[in-house]
Amino acid sequence: MNSSTEYEEVLKLVSELSIDKLHSFPGNDAAPLDGKTLYTSPNSVVYLEGLATDNEPALNNSPRKNELCVVKTVKEEAFCYLLSKEYKILKELNHPHIIKPIDFCHDRALKEQTASLYLPYYPKGELFQLVKSKNGLGEPLSCLYLKQIASAIEYLHEMNIAHRDIKLENILIDDSSNLKLIDFGFCYLSQYQFDEEQNKDIQTKVLESSIEANIMGTAGYLSPELIELTNSGVLAICESTDKIAEKLEILKAGDIFALGVTLFTMVVGVAPFATASKNDANYRALLLGKKRRCDWFWKKHIVAKSMNEKGLLSEEFKNLVEEMLDPNLSDRMGITSVVNHPFLNKFAQSSCDEVYSSY
């Protein structure tokens, strides 16, 4: 490290990463800027590219030739690190509702290093766009989709991995209308080993360790305990050996909270609150209802109140949301309890394609 100024710049960049700088991979909901490019930002570009033909070498793990894949290319060391980490983790995972990477390349030879991640292209796009276009999906399809994402999260948690950025925008709809969880750059697992392919300078090591210790996620989905850590100025959760297990449990509980926000938004069509803060009126209503054991939140949230009065929200759904959004980390249900909750068995088994087509 050349100076304290450089160190401060590294930490500033790390703190900015938590404000959702890495865009998800859109489907056909994002109009290509030039017929091929889907998204651009100062540090990244997302575009479509054809997979190998019979006369060209196929990409690793390519499921289909002569079809499009999504390529995300980033620059700057921090973003390259996150994309590299995402690929290394994704290629080791095997779950039907977690996206499988096709290939990855990291070019350090250029003056400004770049990295590219290749993923399958799903034209139906993000779950967020479906929820937005339909003003909510109601309970039947949301229940089927919750089963899929909860199954993926259960798989991750059993492997001691916390995703740290679960949200509608990070869930894609595949060709069979099933879901794929994406964007693993922010995820945390205690066993993750930093890339030791090259001798790294102190600045690089500080950058990578700071990213791993930093609070990651998207504001509207962050649990109250993570917001409190951020607001207190303590961006890092202690990385000492005796605290790693504690950190992992905090982050797993944060995944459950984010999944609760996701479920509510899927069913109702709008978020339960802007942030899990006492300054947010809807969140205060949730706290008050929990304290008094009453339906206060469901009477105060404008859209949920209307749906509740029309009989569109079941008791099973409301109970599950309240348990997943419990403000007390120690009382919030774990993923196993989510998977076994009565709401997930409320509707007859149907294929997602069948239910999706009815929308």
TrEMBL record:
One MF annotation (Gene Ontology) recorded for this entry = ATP binding
Residue ranges constituting the Protein kinase domain according to the UniProt record: 45-344
Please give the SMART domains that the UniProt record associates with this protein: S_TKc
Q: Which GO terms describe its cellular component?
A: nucleus
Tell me where on the tree of life, at the top rank, the source sits: Eukaryota
Q: Which UniProt keywords apply?
A: ATP-binding, Kinase, Nucleotide-binding, Serine/threonine-protein kinase, Transferase
User: Which PANTHER family does the entry link to?
Assistant: CELL CYCLE SERINE_THREONINE-PROTEIN KINASE CDC5_MSD2, SERINE/THREONINE-PROTEIN KINASE PLK
Name used for this protein in its record: Protein kinase domain-containing protein
